[in-house]
């Protein structure tokens, strides 16, 4: 600061000194011309010649005054230009502030349907915030809700809505996207369309042979998710209602487990997240409507549910808040949309 102070002070001092010197010289010159004019006008014989000379000198005097005035103004302007501080750039109203540093590690636990999306989001999140990590793991929606409740995870993942009792306990849900539940069969299965009533009867164990719904004469293998799964809970509420899934069903603990079982059994039927659907299995039409992003969005495909983040009240952890905000940002929503989810 001192290094910049002294040169500026010197400039100001020299400028002021120069102005004083010029003013002094101008005043002395004007005084001298005035005395000389008086002497020639009143102390010597008046003549036209003398009057002409005096008028010329007066004109020269006015010219000098004008010149000196301009010079002084110029010097003053230069002084102000030299001593004025450099203006600070004012940010534009629409300019985005630099993101505040975020650092630390959080746990994101729960739904295996949400898990692959949260993993992709976590990777991009860490690219944006190199010192922040979101550790994502599965376990099912029930495990995620419990982890958020007891504080073993900052964020729980759920593929079902919270119950009123869970909300009353202080849990908060944040919808991050919407997903369909696809009814899947083996690629070799000739059946392509079922009604909601037929699906319900198959999973209840009332329809046990594919020939009863237009397929081959073969026993149906029912594959379901474990109790506590968000996908199972949503399927139970939307399709089964108060009717239980048959106890003879094969139980899998993940979306991938159901996909693998159905892909390996030509007589199997199961249900998975539409976003996790791949070519290893075939998705059935339900009531004539094929599951797709557009039919989920316009709700013509009825078997659908929200994907949620669950927290214990408003999250206090800075990384958790940043991760949720990133998920809901245009960048985060684009990641979810690329995985066949309907964004919020």
Please, could you describe this protein's structure?
Strand 1 (104-110), helix 3 and strand 2 form a beta-alpha-beta unit. It is built from eleven helices and twelve strands. The two termini are 53 Å apart. Helix 1 runs antiparallel to helix 2. 47% of the residues lie in helices and 19% in strands. It has three domains: 2-82; 105-177 and 307-343, 3-Layer(aba) Sandwich (D-Maltodextrin-Binding Protein, domain 2), CATH 3.40.190; 179-305, Periplasmic binding protein-like II (D-Maltodextrin-Binding Protein, domain 2, 3-Layer(aba) Sandwich), CATH 3.40.190.10. The strands form two sheets. Strands 1, 2, 3, 4, 6, 7, 8, 9, 11 and 12 form a ten-stranded mixed sheet that branches. It has a two-stranded parallel ribbon with strand order 5-10. By secondary structure, the chain is α/β, with parallel strands linked by helices. Residues 1-8, 41-59 and 61-98 have low confidence and may be disordered. The longest helix has 41 residues, at 2-42.
């Amino acid at each position: 600061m001192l290094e910049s102070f002294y040169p500026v002070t010197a400039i100001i001092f020299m400028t002021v000194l120069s102005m004083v010197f010029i003013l002094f010289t101008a005043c002395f010159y004007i005084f001298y011309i005035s005395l000389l004019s008086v002497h020639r006008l009143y102390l010597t014989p008046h003549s036209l010649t003398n009057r002409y000379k005096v008028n010329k000198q007066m004109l020269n005097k006015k010219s000098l005054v004008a010149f000196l005035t301009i010079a002084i103004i110029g010097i003053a302007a230069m002084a102000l230009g030299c001593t004025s501080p450099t203006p600070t750039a004012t940010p534009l109203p629409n300019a985005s502030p630099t993101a505040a540093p975020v650092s630390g590690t959080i746990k994101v636990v729960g739904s295996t349907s949400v898990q692959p999306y949260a993993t992709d989001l976590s990777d991009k999140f860490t690219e944006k915030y190199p010192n922040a990590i979101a550790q994502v793991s599965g376990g099912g929606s029930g495990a995620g809700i419990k982890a958020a409740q007891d504080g073993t995870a900052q964020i729980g993942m759920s593929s079902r809505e919270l119950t009123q009792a869970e909300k009353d306990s202080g849990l908060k849900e944040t919808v991050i996207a919407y997903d369909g539940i696809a009814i899947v069969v083996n690629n070799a299965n000739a059946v392509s369309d079922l009604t909601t009533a037929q699906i319900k009867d198959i999973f209840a164990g009332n329809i046990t042979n594919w020939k009863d719904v237009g397929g081959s004469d073969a026993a149906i293998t029912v594959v379901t998710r474990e109790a506590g799964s968000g996908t199972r809970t949503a399927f139970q509420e939307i399709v089964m209602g108060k009717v239980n899934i048959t106890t003879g069903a094969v139980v899998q603990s993940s979306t991938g487990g159901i996909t693998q079982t159905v892909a390996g059994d030509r007589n199997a039927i199961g249900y998975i997240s539409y976003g996790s659907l791949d070519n290893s299995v075939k998705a059935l039409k339900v009531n004539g409507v094929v599951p797709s992003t557009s039919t989920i969005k316009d709700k013509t495909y009825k078997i659908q549910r929200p994907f949620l983040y669950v927290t214990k009240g408003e999250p206090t952890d800075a990384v958790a808040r940043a991760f949720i905000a990133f998920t809901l940002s245009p960048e985060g929503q684009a990641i979810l949309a690329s995985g066949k989810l309907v964004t919020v």
